Amino acid sequence: MTKRREFIKKSIIGTTGLTIAGLGLGSGAAGSARSAGSAGSSGSAGSAGSTGLVQGDIVWQEDPEWMKVKFGDWGGPGVSSRPGPMDNMRLKDWAPRSLVVTKETFVDKARFPVIDCHLHIYGRTPEQVAEWVRTKDEVGIEKSVILTGATGEAFDDLVDLYLGPYPDRFILYCGIERDDPEAPGYSARAVAELDRCHSRGARGVGEISDKGFGITRDTSLPRDRRLHPDDERLDAVWQRCGELGLPVNIHFADHPSCWTPLDVFQERTPDYQHFNMYELDALHYDELLQIRDRTLEKHPGTIFIACHLSNQGNDLEALGRVMDRYPNLYLDTSARDYEMGRTPRSSARFLEKYMDRIVFGTDMGRRKSMFQIHWRLLETDDEYIPGRVGWRYYGLNLSDRVLEALYRGTALKVHKI
Ligand SMILES: [Zn+2]
Question: What is the pTM (predicted TM-score) of this model?
Answer without folding.
Answer: 0.87
